[in-house]
Write a structure and sequence with these properties.
Strand content: 15-25%
CATH topology: YbaK protein
Number of helices: 5
CATH class: Alpha Beta
Oligomer: single chain
CATH superfamily: YbaK/aminoacyl-tRNA synthetase-associated domain
CATH architecture: Alpha-Beta Complex
Helix content: 25-40%
Structural class: alpha/beta
Radius of gyration: 14 Å
Order of helices and strands: HEHEEHEHEEEHE
Number of domains: 1
Largest sheet: 8 strands, mixed
Shape: globular
Length: 165
């Protein structure tokens, strides 16, 4: 763990988890852990954690008519941007640039957490994640992840459950 544990993004995510009282399926507090290597994809994260790829909650930031939209989707699917845009009444929904992501989350693509941002970001959460007892999300940097349940993820992010794929 060491030096990376002290990264400001990891601290912000852990502080947000603690403030929300976030819990795992075992009722333990959700704790950010630091992996030995960066995991830039759901498949890499699942392999490092020895879990199914569907248990990874990918944090994807979109530019929704100029406003940030965070979609937490199962690592087992791709977001259907046309479906999501139609559901939200957004004219244009596109993957955000790295600069847009950093501006709105304070985090870099590959490590964007569901919380710990400078300002709250509108959030949709993939209903498919509800199938799993525990899910894992990014902890603010590409090496950091944390366990949480679907219900807790919805609660701590004030996210809206949605069919996003």
């Amino acid at each position: 763990m060491g030096r990376m544990q002290a990264h400001p993004n990891v601290i912000a995510v852990q502080d947000a988890l603690d403030a929300a009282g976030a819990r795992t399926a075992d009722e333990a507090p959700s704790q950010v852990i630091i992996l030995d290597e960066a995991v830039h994809t759901a498949a890499a994260a699942a392999e490092a954690l020895c879990i199914e790829v569907g248990q990874i909650a990918n944090s994807l930031i979109f530019d929704a008519d100029g406003a940030p939209l965070l979609v937490l989707t199962s690592g087992a699917h791709r977001v259907d941007t046309a479906k999501v845009a139609a559901g939200l009444g957004v004219a244009k929904l596109r993957r955000a640039t790295p600069e847009f992501v950093r501006e709105h989350t304070g985090q870099a693509i590959g490590g964007v957490a569901p919380l710990g941002h400078p300002q709250p970001v509108r959030t949709l959460i993939d209903n498919d994640l509800a199938r799993f007892r525990d899910i894992w999300a990014a902890g603010g940097v590409p090496q950091a992840v944390f366990p949480i349940t679907y219900a807790e993820l919805v609660r701590v992010t004030a996210g809206t459950p949605a069919d996003v794929a």
